[in-house]
Design brief:
Number of helices: 13
CATH class: Mainly Alpha
Strand content: under 5%
CATH architecture: Orthogonal Bundle
CATH topology: ABC transporter involved in vitamin B12 uptake, BtuC
Order of helices and strands: HHHHHHHEEHHHHHH
Helix content: 55-70%
């Protein structure tokens, strides 16, 4: 087994656009759960809404990239309002159930055969990144160094992905130090106390849901730029990966989702490469290469259990931020 090759692949994924997309989605859940105390288990739905809004407006309506990008934001706001108006008065596990169901409803709608002309059905959509790459001002050649070497097209996606992560991080940092952020964190800790001060708790929850949903939608756009849109990518697994990233870095932290996403994907690729290499080298003989790919999730699950038991606030979290009104 070439361990250096495996390590090189693992380090390379640390700064990939996929890692940036998951970090952005985790920032959105951080706004929902870490700051506002909303148990949103449907972030995959927001990512799907953003991805399909971008793909459909590009392919069907011929929108240029800026308008298609804006359409993803608008679609996520509309979805957040539709989801939030009847559900934000629910608490804890009830809200979690509703958000899981909403994400699954979105996935089944876009994959239905009757909408194949618009959404592509089970086959999804592809060839929608032309207008995005047409905006690429970079000269030809490769960019970066070592495991972080990208082609011209890949580096353009890299810049957009991590640029959006940086913008979202600054926005969250500023908001959570503003009066709005202090009210939202107060709702997380005791919404009845905040309501007694004359604040409209429902409105603040809706604003937090919309903000985190927009980040999720933009994550969906970044996620699909290097690949096609496939409805199977938006199963509950996507949301649970994002939650793992958030809990790993720290729920109510600014940089936790970013570092958590990097650590998560490096460990995922590293464990897959090491275990798969040991199986192919016949050092491990009691499992197949297919089973080796599944064992990595078992190991990450065990790591998450240990993290929750021994450091529930995450790597960068603070125990003082773990008070939730559920």
């Amino acid at each position: 087994m070439d361990f250096l090759f495996v390590l090189n692949n693992a380090l390379g994924v640390a700064l990939s656009p996929t890692t940036a997309a998951y970090a952005l989605a985790a920032i959105g859940i951080g706004v929902h759960f870490g700051y506002a105390g909303l148990l949103n288990f449907g972030q995959a739905g927001f990512m799907a809404i953003g991805a399909y809004a971008f793909g459909i407006t590009t392919l069907t309506l011929g929108f240029p990239f800026p308008l298609a990008f804006l359409s993803a934001v608008v679609a996520s706001v509309v979805f957040a309002l539709i989801l939030g108006i009847p559900t934000l008065r629910l608490r804890a596990d009830y809200l979690a159930i509703v958000t899981i169901a909403s994400a699954e409803i979105v996935r089944y709608i876009v994959s239905t055969t009757g909408l194949s002309d618009v959404t592509g059905g089970a086959s999804g959509l592809s060839a929608f990144a032309g207008s995005f790459q047409a905006m690429n001002p970079l000269p030809g050649g490769s960019y970066g160094f070592g495991p972080w070497t990208y082609s011209r097209a890949e580096f353009w996606v890299f810049l957009w992905g991590w640029g959006l992560v940086a913008i979202a991080t600054v926005v969250v940092w500023l908001l959570m130090r503003s009066p709005w952020g202090r009210v939202v964190k107060g709702i997380r800790e005791d919404e009845d106390a905040v309501r007694s001060l004359g604040k409209n708790v429902y409105a603040y929850k809706m604003q937090a849901l919309v903000l985190g949903g927009v980040f999720g939608s933009l994550a969906g756009v970044i996620f699909i730029l290097p690949r096609a849109i496939q409805p199977t990518n938006y199963a509950t697994t996507l949301t649970f990966f994002t939650w793992t990233i958030l809990l790993l870095g720290g729920a109510a932290t600014v940089f936790g989702p970013i570092i958590g996403s990097m650590i998560f994907w490096v460990l995922l690729v590293l464990t897959e490469g090491v275990i798969g290499g040991l199986v192919r080298a016949d050092i491990i003989t009691f499992i197949s290469t297919t089973q080796a790919g599944q064992i990595r999730f078992v190991l990450l699950g065990l790591a998450l259990i240990l993290l929750v038991v021994f450091r529930p606030q995450g790597i960068f979290g603070n125990k003082k931020e773990l008070s939730f009104n559920v």
